[in-house]
Each structure stands twice: as structure tokens, then as C-alpha cells.
Amino acid sequence: MKSSSQSSAAWALRLNFQCKRTAVLLQRVLFVFAFGFFHCSCRADEAELKLHTFQEPHMGTMITIRAWAGTEQGQIDELTLSVRKAYDRIAALEQIFSDYRRDSEVSKLASAPSEEPIPVGTELFDLFQKSRELYDNTAGAFDITLGPLIRQWRLSRKNHRLPSKESFDRARARSGFHLVVLNAENQTILKKVDGMIFDFGGIGKGYAADAALKILREEGYPRSLVAVSGDIALGDPPPGKKLWRVGIESLQLVEDSSDLQTISIANASVSTSGDTQQYVAIEGKRYSHILDPETGLGLTERIGVSVIAPNTTTSDSFATAVSILGEKEGLKFIENKRGIECQIVTLRDGRETIIRTDGFIEDSQLEAKKE
Question: Which residue range(s) make up the domain with 37?
């Protein structure tokens, strides 16, 4: 676990459009950078706080934890122990949800015989229930049972070759929530066919971020954040500030961080899903890493989605769902959902088009109103 302390008190997160279903370390690590110093008007005890940064690899990415705490060695040691608990919690969840680990709970469920109710742990059942609800609400756009199709698409991306109709049909026959029976009373899961694979890439990281931030709060560090790939859980704001500032990349890469769009939030979560870097060109056509459940191939429309929500489980899964639903249906899905805001960026002929819900307000809009 790498750690460091930083004394700047005005901070922002750079939220990258990263692959949410990758098994390798991210090529570009999500990071927090300073927008500049400010004169702290906080209480004396708050003025002595410093921002401490920790990084550790889990879930196929580098996970960043930042927390405000004291600067004395004893205080730093106590914080380090608390952060260790947060990372251990993430590691424990990875052992439950990861389809890359053969000994994980979800992998054991996948390899269990079909037509038999399999008892599972509370957390795995909870995530299945949340995923099923979102599957129903999005007409199947969000679907954790698409593991066979997702693995097939990964192989196609690697080999730069589209899957055959026969292989697609075989994968499709083992995918779909209609093949899963959840029994809440007995906390069991039954698969109707063998060979199913469950992929939590569109919700698991958000779930882990929520769990880690909860531990930091319980340990006495409410001014904290947890960044897991494109999913960020934010606690109380920095001392002397009302909000955290979060930077969001567009679909077109920018080199200067000052060009990033920014939003300001606290005690909430934000997730971004898109394909700025994770894509492949096959037979002259560009495909995203994000799977289209209808075709079994990557999306061909350029889209980036940012969702603000009360928790990261929701922001992560909703960002994934909207990416698949597309601009029109995605916005319709988000509208009228209390506490949820969304921005959708599409790229056509090299030009970005941005639509937002009314409550998704970037900092430049707020600054313009002040003027």
C-alpha cells in the first residue's frame, strides 16, 4: 500500500473514461490533483489536518483512497490502520464478485450444477437482487448474466476478429436473467442451464467503493474519498470547503487538466463510463469495449456517461446502463429518479453533443450565474 501526504486544500478528481470490465491494471491511474491553494477559514483543529493519499491494486485497477487527518506520526499510523481495513474490505468483496478468480464465490456459483438451488452469502445475493431490479427497469440493457458474450467479445477484441454466428448463438443460449431464479427466503440462486458466467464489471467497483468509504466513516475519517477506476465515492468535503471538485474528461482526450469539465459535490458519488481508450477497430469499424446485449458486439456509437447519485453502487450501474441504452432512452431512464443526475456526451463526425438532466450543473455554469 503506497501512501503520501499533501498539504494543498483545494482538490479535484480527474474522472477518466476507463474500461469497466478489464482484468489488467489501468494504463492511466485515476488521480486527485490540486487546483491551487486557498486560505483556510476552518477551526484550529481542522487547520491542522492534511490530505493523505493511499494507492493499492485491486479489482483490476489501482484504487485510490484520500483522507484528511492529523500530521503527527501517531495520527498517521491510526489512519493507515483504518485504510488497511478499507482495502481489506475491498479484497474480501473481490473474492466474492470476481469472475476472474476461479475460487471466488461467484465463480463457484457459475460452475455449480444447474437446476439446483445454491446457497450464497448475503453480499452476493444482495448484488444479484440489485442487478435483477436494474435488468427489469432497463429492459435487459443492464445484465450481469452476459458473461459468456462478454468473454467472447474480449477474445474478439484480442484477435481483431468478429465472432461467428455459431459462437454467438452458443454464448447467447447461456445468457439472460430468465435463466436465473432468486429465492430471497432461502437466499439461494438457481441456474437453469450450465455454463453461465456472471460479470459484475458494471456494478461491483461501485459496490466496493461504498463499502470502503463506509469503513473510513466508521473509523472516524468522514472527510474521505474512494476512487475505483471511473467510480468515486465522496464523503464530507475538505476543511474550509463546502464541496469536492470533480474533473470529468470528455470523449476527446485533453492533455491539460485545466481544460477538464468540473462539477462540485459532497456526500455523494459520481461514475463515468465511456470508451475514450478502450476500443478496437475490426474490418474498418470502430467497436467499444462496452457490450451491446442485442448484437453481442461492442457499441459502435461513441458515448460517454457521467452519473451523480447518493451512492456509488447506483452511479456505477446507472452509468453502465445509460451507456448501453443510448442517448434518448438513457435520458428517459434517468429522468424523474430522485437524487440522480446524468450527463450524456455523444461524438459524431468529430463533434461532441452534450445533454444533461436539470440538476447536473458544471462549475462553469455556476460561475457564470455568479457573474
Answer: 2-94+203-370
